[in-house]
């Protein structure tokens, strides 16, 4: 009777790096927070409805009274921080990644993430079906359901993705601080303008921020998990 030597044990699967584990934990926390807010909004939880109403009524009074700030808010929300502007910025960066760095995978990942974010946001809006604020003297108008804010979500997704890509390239201190400041101003600013103009409840904006940050965290996991960091942006140039 022949005895075959036992096969050597297979090596344990490598653990994901610490950065991926942190990102996964962050995604879990963001997902839980968004889910709680989604349930409260869908159930029309009275304390949340009351806070939304109090803040929205106050900001609407200020918006009606202060034409100058309201006009600036409309320009910012309709042109500078509009979702179409944000998506065009993403498209420009994707083209640059292909043209200057030959980073086809990164460009595709960026474009697909933005497209998925748009589709998922519209699906959640349709499912929740939350009405927007209604005023006898509106200063602006908007379409579709209210929750989550598409402006807040899109700005968060675009700024988050671009900041992550920039960080991977090892920017200088001045460039990094400038980019972070611009991203914070854009993400916070667009949320404030949506409430100021009376087209969203504050919790709509909070939902957009949370959901957008969740999508960024999941996108980073999708990008990095298979090969632990495929991005090599500084490696190759064209022209």
UniProtKB/TrEMBL annotation:
Source superkingdom: Bacteria
InterPro entries registered for this protein in UniProt: PAP2/HPO, PAP2/HPO_sf
Phosphatidic acid phosphatase type 2/haloperoxidase domain mapped to chain residues: 106-220
Pfam families tied to this protein: PAP2 (PF01569)
Keyword Amino-acid biosynthesis: no
Membrane-spanning parts: 26-45, 79-99, 106-124, 144-166, 178-199, 205-223
Alphabetical UniProt keywords: Membrane, Transmembrane, Transmembrane helix
Protein name per its UniProtKB record: Phosphatase PAP2 family protein
Species name: Streptomyces tricolor
């Amino acid at each position: 009777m022949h005895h075959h030597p036992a096969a050597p044990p297979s090596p344990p699967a490598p653990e994901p790096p610490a950065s991926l584990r942190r990102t996964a934990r962050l995604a879990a926390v963001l997902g839980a927070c968004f889910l709680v807010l989604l349930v409260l909004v869908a159930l029309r939880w009275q304390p949340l409805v009351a806070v939304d109403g109090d803040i929205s009524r106050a900001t609407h009074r200020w918006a009606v009274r202060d034409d100058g700030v309201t006009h600036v808010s409309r320009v910012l929300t309709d042109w500078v921080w509009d979702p179409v502007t944000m998506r065009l910025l993403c498209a420009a960066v994707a083209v640059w990644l292909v043209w200057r760095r030959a980073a086809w995978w990164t460009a595709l990942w960026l474009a697909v993430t933005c497209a998925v974010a748009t589709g998922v946001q519209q699906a959640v809006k349709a499912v929740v079906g939350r009405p927007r604020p209604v005023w006898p003297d509106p200063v602006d108008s908007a379409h579709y359901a209210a929750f989550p804010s598409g402006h807040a979500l899109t700005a968060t997704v675009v700024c988050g993705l671009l900041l992550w890509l920039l960080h991977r390239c090892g920017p200088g201190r001045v460039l990094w601080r400038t980019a972070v400041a611009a991203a914070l101003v854009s993400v916070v600013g667009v949320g404030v303008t949506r409430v100021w103009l009376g087209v969203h409840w504050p919790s709509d904006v909070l939902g957009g921020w949370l959901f957008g940050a969740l999508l960024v965290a999941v996108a980073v996991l999708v990008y990095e998990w298979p090969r632990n960091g495929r991005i090599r942006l500084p490696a190759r140039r064209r022209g």
